[in-house]
Amino acid sequence: MNFFLNKLGLDFQPKLFGSLKNYSKEKFIKDFMSGIIVGIVALPLAIAFGIASGVSPEQGIITAIIGGFIVSFLGGCSVQIGGPTGAFIIIVYGIIQQYGFEGLVIATILAGFMLIGMGLLRLGTIIKFIPYPIIVGFTGGIALVIFTTQIKDLFGLRMETVPADFISKWIAYAKAAQTIHVASLIMGLSSILIIVFSPKWIKKIPGSLIAIIAMTIVAYVLKNYCGVTGIETIGDRFEINTSFPKPALVTLNWETINALLPPAFTIAMLGAIESLLSATVADGITGDKQNSNTELIAQGTANIVAPLFGGIPVTGAIARTMTNINNGGRSPIAGIIHAIVLLLILLFLVPLTKHIPMACLAGVLVIVAYNMSEWRIFTSLLKNPKSDIIVLLVTFFLTVIFDLTIAIEVGILLAMVLLVKRISETSSISVVTDELNMQSDAEKTANNDKLVLPEGVEVYEIDGPFFFGIANKFEESMRKLNVKRPKIRIIRMRKVPFMDSTGLHNLESLYRLSEKEGIQLVLSGVNDKIKEMLKKNRLTDKIGKENICSNINEALERTNYLIDK
């Protein structure tokens, strides 16, 4: 199968099939045990992420089942665990509020096709080069927004509606401060303390599961035997369906597709970044090597299938992937077992989840937000160059105040602009009209420390890429040169690694201007790639092949010939 795919130019090699070649009973036992543990760990997170995203608890579980199975079955990372994650909460919630759940289904499916397209085009490695300040900025922003969305349930505030935007939320919380429900607040804070401190004594069972079990028992006793009222549970807010849903048809039209393309792009980018980061972290621990393009195809497939069954966006989950590794999982079988465990829980045990207090889930998500914030990394980046700080803070505040779609788009655009500015600052054009100092020059000949330029010759040396960011510096350099018009203009390009279309256009404009003024143009130190570019655009014919020289010595020989001619 891989042979035919490679012949077609497709980089799709699921790890599952390779791992089964030397599979053994011992490996299966480790994967089986790890899969059970990861399934149990994933349950409270799937429920919490589903509710926080604006859907029902079982939809979060369904996402973990379908996403977890497909990502493990088709993925390019042996230990990746797929499912819903906290990173998607604000974008999913926003889409549902604006377009309804059907809008989310369409956006997620579109994102799935985008992810598959990225994988087929072998963009898996390129995604990794998204600037780190952007990732930290929107991750920190998401963490703050998640924390903000949990204030109502954590404090048990009595509010009919919660505003959508960040600032309005806090204003509404302040107005409702007198409605704090003490029992709910105690349960929420207790959940946080259990999650933080329980790992010191209980290593194998996740703190979130201990907190949910403990607080569910406490809430049940308080409500039914102690007469405490006002503790809201999952069952008070949702009607839980325990059957596995049938796939639903989606109605597509161009108007809806066009409206949902920006959020779909955000889902795709966020899914790609998070899943590949998770896989990269996993590789560093296991010593394995992921196939990033295969991973993107698997993530895309999961995001096409999951919403048809009522699921929300799927990506690689770092916390669950790490749990899988730490418990001995080393093949995709562990991820498949985890999905089966969640399916069994959905079919037989989900009715018990109706007793889980909302304040407890809020506590779980507060810890998730704290872990996502990476505040130590955030503060350390504030010591970096100003350009990194600007990208970090702009991405962060756009995520918090507006939305993630705008934050990612503007963040990437800003990072590109600042990168171009930085490259432009390192590139330069110097003008020489008398002599060239050759002491530290690679083109230096045996007894030639200095090259004296003939009268009427000027040399423009470009140091750095000749692209749109530096192209106009030619005109600036020529304006500053207050000498009589030269006979020959040498463009020294030995330090030019590449040239883009704007640089090419600028060079052609310089040739036309020189021709108009009766100045001969000679190029020096042109590398093979740029020579090929000049040839394809017929600039070689205009300048003259004999006037495109390999080094400065050839260029001066050509110059002397033209002067004596």
Description:
This protein is α/β, with parallel strands linked by helices and about 575 residues long. Helix content is about 60%, strand content about 5%. The chain folds into 2 domains: about 30-415, no CATH class; about 430-565, Transcription Regulator spoIIAA. β6 (about 455-465), α21 (about 475-480) and β7 form a beta-alpha-beta unit. The longest helix is centred in the middle third of the chain and has 33 residues, at about 255-285. A 5-stranded mixed beta sheet has the order 3-6-7-8-9, sandwiched between helices. It has a two-stranded antiparallel ribbon with strand order 1-2. It is elongated.
Question: What's this model, at a glance?
Answer:
This protein is α/β, with parallel strands linked by helices. It contains 25 helices and nine strands. Helix 10 (182-197) runs antiparallel to helix 11.
Give start-end ranges of low-pLDDT stretches: none
Give the strand content: 5-15%
Largest sheet: 5 strands, mixed
Number of strands: 9
Number of helices: 25
Ends apart, CA distance between termini: 67 Å
Q: Which bin fits the share of residues in helices? A: 55-70%
Set down the secondary structure blueprint.
Elements: H1 2-7, H2 15-19, H3 25-52, H4 57-74, E1 82-83, H5 89-120, H6 124-127, H7 132-149, H8 151-155, H9 166-175, H10 182-197, H11 207-225, H12 234-237, H13 254-286, H14 292-305, E2 315-316, H15 318-326, H16 332-348, H17 358-373, H18 375-381, H19 386-401, H20 404-426, E3 428-432, E4 435-437, E5 450-452, E6 457-463, H21 473-480, E7 488-495, H22 501-516, E8 520-524, H23 528-536, H24 539-543, E9 548-549, H25 552-564
